[in-house]
Amino acid sequence: MKTLRYIFLSILIWVFYVEAFEIRTGIKDYGYRIVFDGVKNYEYLPVSTTLIFKIDGEFKNSAIKLDPRFVKSIEISKDTFTKKTIIYLEINDNMDPKVFSLSNPDRLVIDLKVLDKKEKQSVSENNTVKENKESKKVISKKDSDDVLNKILKSLEMQASDNNSSNSIEIEVPKSFAGRKKIIVIDPGHGGHDPGATANGLREKDINLKVALKLKSFLEKDPRFKVYLTREDDRFIPLYDRTLIAIEKKADLFISIHTNASENPNLSGTYIYTLNLRGATSKLAKMVEERENQTVLNVIKVSANPNVNKIVADMAISHTMTEGLNFAKFAQIYLKRNLKDTEFKRIESANFAVLKTPSIPSVLVETAFITNENDARLLANDKFLEKFAQSLYKAIVDYFFRYKNLVFSKGKEES
Ligand SMILES: [Zn+2]
What we know:
This is N-acetylmuramoyl-L-alanine amidase. The protein has about 425 residues and is α/β, with parallel strands linked by helices. Helices cover about 35% and strands about 30% of the residues.
């Protein structure tokens, strides 16, 4: 009787909510099982302890309770344009996840097997070997900050010496034997989403121009491999943009945007870095709201309510620091190179597009499309070229003056 009722209910759900799914959980002898009932089509991407799912259909639960012994947090967002649901499931690090789908009825199953001490040890031994190799090269946080500050100071001094010259010199090596740095450039907006519009300009066009120019600088340099999230005027959902960065294993993710304000007097360049606690200033708050507009109906549910508020994850906090370090290089070159508009400052905000686990990410706002002087510059190809060149130079220095020093001990400049 129970089975019959179950089948009847399943059919009912299938008929009325073909594209809806629900989440249920259960404790198992091996650990924990999470089932997404009603899921047929999905994409799955594991990134360390974050399991990312892109699911066709709408999520129906009003709240989920997950056992904190197995799962740290779950974040569910709906992309209003693709109608897809994006789920970030953060599992504890002693879990071995298995993801598979079953049919009749359609469901997606996530089995989290608790690794016993022996298994955990063998896994962590593997990791330790890798980590040891890495950590031999890594110097302490304080030392690396000192190195960074030294380099930035010397660059700033160079900048004031070079004030008279109009362009900056870039030495491009003919060949490069090391591992290429992977740069993912994300021209904001596109397609039916023009971004900000004013003074006869559309943000999406400016963003793409800068991105293509930056791409061509990077392509001429054998030390880099470059990808764009879009190369033409098309719409890409925010979460797909971050997925591209993850899939390409980006070493740096740069999202390019153009600022706008109701106040036509606001002008200048800003760089934003990820801050999980949200915007740090009123302006950053406004920019954050505008750039996040394409992701609506964000539901946040967490087994531990603090998880959404505090930066618990080491990978993400490392990402934040490195995003900021890159921003410091970009600041120097943008200040030096752009004489006609002012580089304002580095700010931080909570941008959906910057949520790329383990990838240093920044969002650059070129200038204000709503300011007459800035708009004149944004319409000028030479200005956009200089802007892209400044970012290119910052990328070179970030990786080859700073990172290679910090990550190879004892080779500091004297
Ligand atoms: Zn934008």
